[in-house]
Amino acid sequence: MQMKITGAAFAAMLSLAANGWATGLATCDTGPREGWQSPETLKQILIEKGWEVRRIKEDGGCYEVYALTDQGERVEAYFHPETLEPVPVEHDEEE
Amino acid sequence: MSSTESRRARIWDPLVRLLHWSLVGTFAAAWWTRHSPGGVHEWLGYAVLSVVALRLCWGFVGTRHARFAQFVRSPGATLAYARSLIRPNPPRYLGHNPLGAWMIVALIVTTLVICASGWLYTTDRYWGVEWVDNVHRRSTNFGLVLVALHIAGVVVTSIQERENLVASMIHGNKRPAAPDDVA
Questions:
Q1: Quick one: closest CA in A to B164, which residue?
Q2: Short-list A63, A21, A74, CA closest to A38
Q3: What residues in A contact B122, CB-CB < 8 Å?
Q4: A91 vs A20, which has greater pLDDT?
Q5: Tens digit of pLDDT for each residue in B141-154?
Q6: Distance from CA of A22 to the nearest CA of B (A)
Q7: What strands, in cross-sheet order, belong to the sheet with A62-68?
Q8: B127/A68 Cβ within 8 A
Q9: Nearest-Cα residue of chain A relative to residue B31
Q10: Contact, A6 vs B151, CB < 8 A?
């Protein structure tokens, strides 16, 4: 009985580990990387908006930005790498 | 497996068991919600931290086998116990054995690092700061390895001592001490 429980626990952990890296919060239907604008360009646009950009990562084919807005709010926002348009997150975080 | 008649010694008090399984539940839930928006993951993190904080207190004022002083042994004694495992008839500990004890310490410390780095990442100062994120991820992965080793240790000891130690952590009872056991 106990072996069965433990086996199930191991299986569960393996499936967790295999879950991969994309967070599933947003997905961008992006083409080849040649068509992407650089994260530096995105950063400049956001800085001009008054944002304090902390970090730009890639997630689900989008640029994922960690920043403080001009209002001083913490945001994790997604942008399309080709258009640099904001991409709505599955369910926007309320802070 | 021994009969219910012979497994009567009450070893794990209700709070030890409740906190053990609460940690399992909250840690697992925090893992599942690690990408969920809306602050669920963060609240689960605080729940994990509360469980660990309570367990730390209970480790000083709790019942006999709940106390760190009862089960945490010196490195030398722990090494001696580890060596005894490869020989026949290693000693049976009624409470945590020395290796299990250090696993508990490692799990608690790792959980605190996970909680602290996770909380830090939610502050304005450290929001989006890469090293904080890395500490949070790596300590979590390390924690999952510890959990796997902890389960492996419990299974091996259960087989070797012919007692279902997972069940003991549920009902709190173990087979009473034999003359050679460490009570």
A1: A2
A2: A63
A3: 74
A4: A91
A5: 999 999 999 999 99
A6: 9
A7: A52-59, A62-68, A74-79, A86-87
A8: yes
A9: A16
A10: yes
